[in-house]
């Protein structure tokens, strides 16, 4: 029996990693090999998986699994123990060599490494840490590294991962404890949250030491993130938003990622037959933005859901909230607070900042606001300017139908 080549293993393990959405590299500190003897790599500049930094730069990452062998039998996972898929395994040295080869060809500028659980959680975590150690210490690699840590592994190994990686992540997998118990019987919600709590304390301690001691080691400078699968169980959007809010507040996460459940070959009978609409995932990301950047509480986002606790698919959550609470509108863009401007549908954070800056010098007209937004028609029912007042427009019964995006047939070869 011939052993698979590195390229053959790469084909299997890169494909197996595509289900993990939490590979963004935003928030990392600037790290450069300049001045490091024999060093290579940087977390700056343009560089296969594409993520985006806060300033809009595209970050290319080699996104693979160390192995897709797994002793766990999570129903929703294509790499579960009982799944009939091709299996492969890299050694830490092979992953390190691949990363350096891809980097030298300017294909990537970092690594996102996850793994199935093979032998034991500690054994797998040791392999992940060893991969990062080879890159950092033997190759002097200063590029971006994101490690997916294993909550069942010993705290000492997880701590070593934080010392070597820019970002670490621990997936909570499902939004409810009951869903996790039913679909991932080998995992424990309290254990996952305990590992996230330990990581939070280690990150805070490292930042405190860095303030007091200039040469203190960095620890996961890009923080920690997590991922939830959407649509594999019966959790509503209200459940998911509530869980995300508790995770942000309790563990100071940089991001919560949402991954729409995708039916897999030889699926378990307890899983739904159809995947949820991808627009549902998009609406959850929009609700996440409302909580992180627009000052909405989780309870307010939940107020935008329907009777089943799900966000509307035809309109965004911000517009859904505004339509439910029309008594707060219209607002005068020349007088109202920043908090209320952020709640106007169609106005983003940048547009609100420009309105606040501009109104110090002159009175704004509807035309001025229109220049700051993609669709002034969406904004008009909710604002007052010196030359515009919506009168009865805000209270129209058909306002939702007027503002909802029109359905259109997409063209494959449209210009």
- Average pLDDT taken over every residue: 89
Number of strands: 9
Give the strand order of the largest sheet, numbering strands 1, 2, ... along the chain: 1-2-3-4-5-6-7
CATH architecture of the largest domain: Alpha-Beta Barrel
- Unreliable residue runs: 25-30, 42-47
Helix content: 25-40%
- Main β-sheet description: 7 strands, mixed
InterPro entries: Aldolase_TIM, DNA_rSAM_put, Elp3/MiaA/NifB-like_rSAM, Endo/Exo/Phosphatase_dom_1, rSAM, rSAM_sf, RuvA_2-like
Keywords: Iron, Iron-sulfur, Metal-binding, S-adenosyl-L-methionine
Pfam family, one: Radical_SAM
GO molecular function: catalytic activity; iron-sulfur cluster binding; metal ion binding
Provide a quick synopsis of the model.
Its cofactor is [4Fe-4S] cluster. This protein has 415 residues and is α/β, with parallel strands linked by helices.
What would you note in describing this structure?
This protein has 415 residues and is of the alpha/beta class. It folds into 2 domains: 6-227, Alpha-Beta Barrel (TIM Barrel); 325-403, no CATH class. It has 15 helices and 9 strands. It has helices at 6-16, 92-104, 121-138, 155-164, 177-183, 189-212, 237-251, 278-293, 298-302, 317-324, 338-341, 349-358, 366-370, 376-379, 399-403; strands at residues 49-52, 58-65, 110-114, 144-148, 167-169, 224-230, 255-260, 331-332, 383-384. The chain starts with 5 loop residues before the first helix and ends in a 12-residue tail after the last helix.
């Amino acid at each position: 029996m011939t052993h698979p080549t590195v390229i053959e293993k790469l084909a299997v393990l890169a494909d197996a990693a595509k289900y993990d959405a939490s590979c963004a590299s935003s928030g990392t500190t600037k790290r450069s090999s300049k001045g490091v003897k024999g060093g290579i790599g940087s977390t700056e500049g343009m560089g296969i998986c594409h993520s985006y930094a806060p300033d809009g730069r595209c970050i290319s990452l080699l996104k693979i699994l160390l192995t897709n062998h797994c002793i766990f039998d999570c129903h929703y996972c294509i790499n579960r123990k009982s799944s009939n898929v091709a299996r492969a395994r890299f050694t830490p040295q092979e992953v390190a060599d691949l990363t350096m080869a891809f980097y030298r060809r300017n294909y990537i500028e970092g690594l996102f490494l996850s793994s199935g659980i093979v032998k034991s959680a500690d054994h797998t975590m040791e392999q992940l840490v060893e991969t990062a150690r080879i890159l950092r210490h033997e190759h002097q690699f200063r590029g971006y590294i994101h490690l997916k840590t294993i909550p069942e592994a010993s705290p000492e190994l997880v701590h070593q991962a934080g010392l070597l990686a820019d970002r670490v992540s621990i997936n909570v997998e499902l939004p409810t404890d009951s869903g996790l118990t039913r679909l991932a019987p080998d995992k424990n919600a309290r254990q996952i949250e305990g590992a996230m709590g330990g990581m939070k304390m280690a990150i805070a301690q490292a930042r405190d030491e860095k303030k007091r001691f200039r040469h203190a080691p960095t620890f996961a400078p890009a923080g920690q993130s997590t991922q939830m699968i959407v649509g594999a169980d019966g959790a509503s959007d209200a459940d998911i938003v509530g869980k995300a809010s508790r995770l942000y507040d309790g563990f100071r996460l940089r991001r919560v990622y949402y991954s729409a459940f995708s039916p897999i070959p030889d699926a378990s009978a307890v899983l739904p037959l159809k995947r949820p609409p991808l627009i549902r995932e998009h609406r959850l990301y929009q609700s996440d933005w409302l909580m992180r950047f627009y000052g909405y509480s989780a309870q307010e986002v939940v107020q935008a859901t329907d009777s089943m606790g799900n966000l509307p698919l035809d309109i965004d959550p911000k517009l859904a909230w505004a339509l439910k609470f029309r008594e707060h509108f219209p607002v005068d863009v020349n007088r109202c607070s920043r908090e209320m401007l952020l709640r106007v549908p169609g106005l983003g954070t940048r547009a609100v900042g420009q309105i606040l800056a501009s109104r110090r010098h002159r009175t704004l007209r509807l035309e001025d606001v229109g220049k700051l937004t993609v669709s002034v028609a969406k904004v008009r029912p909710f604002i007052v300017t010196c030359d515009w007042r919506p009168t009865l427009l805000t209270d129209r019964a058909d306002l939702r139908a007027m503002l909802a995006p029109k359905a259109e047939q997409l063209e494959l070869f449209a210009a």
